[in-house]
Amino acid sequence: FLAIVVLSSCAGLKKMKKEASKIKYQVNPKVLAEYADMVDVKIKVTIPPKYFHKKAIVEATPVLKFKGGEEAFETKILQGEKVQGNHTVVPFNSGKTINYVGKISYKNAMRISGLYVRLKGRKGNKEVQFESEKLANGVFATATLVVNNPQTIIGKDAFQKVISDKKEADLFYLINSAQVRSSEGKKDDIQALKDYVEGVRVSEDKEYRGIEISAYASPDGTKKLNEKLAENREKTSTKFLKDEMKRAGLENFTARSLMKSKVTPEDWEGFQKLMKQSNIRDKDLILRVLAMYNDPEVREKEIRNIASVFDEVKDVILPKLRRAKFIVSVDIIGKENEDLI
Length: 341
What we know:
Elements: H1 2-18, E1 24-28, E2 31-35, E3 38-47, E4 57-66, E5 69-72, E6 76-80, E7 88-90, E8 96-105, E9 113-123, E10 126-129, E11 133-140, E12 162-172, H2 188-202, E13 206-216, H3 223-247, E14 259-264, H4 268-277, H5 283-292, H6 296-305, H7 307-317, E15 323-333, H8 337-340
Parallel strand pairs: 2-11, 6-7, 13-14
Antiparallel strand pairs: 1-3, 2-3, 3-8, 4-5, 4-6, 4-9, 9-10, 9-11, 12-15, 13-15
């Protein structure tokens, strides 16, 4: 019976992933723009009838991707009509139209960027990452180019011969586990990381500096257990990366001299960052606990005592902290002076 339930749960999410193209997005403005150092977006989302499973939960996160990084807007959480929760309910028979509004701080690198939406579905203890979809381009930032007090300035030029660049990818683990799941190795960001390294290999103007592996455990649980978990995740993520690079013919890029590791047994910094970005009700109570107490055990105890939100923290925040992060660093070498003439 349990096997039937698990298969049914997974099948429902896989169908939603397969038919995700039926969801329609209307972005306003069509090309994102900077205003007062912020990038605002409005998205009209139309979810068709007979699409949203009655027992599913979907986390939808708009993400602005640009060279060298990305910035996520606030996540919107949707739920089926049979889910017990306080998120936006999407009826199965009629579907729903949702108007999303979000904003992030502007960065100069966002001038050439793309707005994407990431969807992650959950049903019971099953989780499925949908393919990300591009929604719009960005960012018009004419105001940042205006000089209000023009004057002649003579000085050194801002030319940089060497520019640092990096590429990141995450590997997520189940609770109390250091085993790398096969599904994690098939994610878009892992493939993008390998493609990035391959691009460095064939490029004449890029110099590979190395890769850093940071392994984490979420702050719930005992310190001793989290220390062991983080250390084991560092080992399994390192092995995973070496194996993936070897299969791609890039084993020279994972030589011992080019790799360094860092272990964080209790990722309170990541926890605080995700809490600030979330729309969890009463999140200010939890942030106040973090500000008042430094002792990890006291923090965890006080947060668990906030029973009204802990279940949501357990489902939404903590799984994102059970991870290993890969960061590839590269130097982009500029042209010699004689080549610029």
